[in-house]
User: Which sequence fits this backbone?
């Protein structure tokens, strides 16, 4: 509250609160943060499942976890190009739907699920994140005036980091409970 009050009085604030009046900017930041909450919950919990339930060694566990960044790395550049050509709205929605489907199917994993099935679910979550992330970031940054790109980019990074921290904290608390 003190920071917000101080920032409103500044001629050149660190975080320009007027930017949050733009729905694409505000909702894009919120959606981005929530996507990171979801992904980092998975990032914390999946290794426990793979080691304790599937009884994988550290090496095999690490190989399984590469499904997320590999699929994200393949899909994100493609979604960025598609976003530049067709816009971001439908890609963001499709990406979040794939992410939810991937994470939901991972949540239903049990001891009888095959490793290729689990890897496919991880890959689906990574693909959903890749499909969502580039268009969402482009939409957020595209709404900003040129002189606010630096503070907008910083706010976007802060939203991502907040999502990561909240995802780990919430899933850690849930796991401990």
Assistant:
């Amino acid at each position: 509250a003190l920071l917000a009050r101080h920032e409103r009085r500044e001629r050149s604030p660190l975080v320009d609160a007027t930017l949050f009046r733009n729905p694409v900017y505000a909702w894009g930041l919120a959606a981005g943060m929530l996507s990171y909450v979801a992904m980092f919950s998975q990032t914390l919990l999946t290794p426990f499942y793979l080691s304790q339930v599937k009884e994988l060694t550290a090496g095999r566990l690490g190989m399984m976890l590469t499904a997320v960044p590999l699929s994200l790395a393949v899909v994100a550049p493609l979604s960025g190009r598609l976003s530049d050509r067709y816009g971001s709205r439908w890609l963001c929605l499709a990406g979040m739907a794939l992410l939810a489907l991937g994470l939901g199917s991972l949540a239903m994993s049990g001891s009888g699920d095959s490793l290729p099935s689990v890897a496919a679910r991880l890959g689906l979550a990574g693909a959903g994140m890749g499909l969502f992330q580039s268009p969402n970031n482009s939409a957020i940054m595209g709404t900003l005036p040129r002189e606010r790109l630096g503070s907008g980019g910083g706010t976007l990074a802060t939203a991502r980091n907040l999502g990561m921290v909240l995802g780990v904290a919430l899933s850690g608390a849930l796991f401990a409970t």
In short: The radius of gyration is 18 Å.
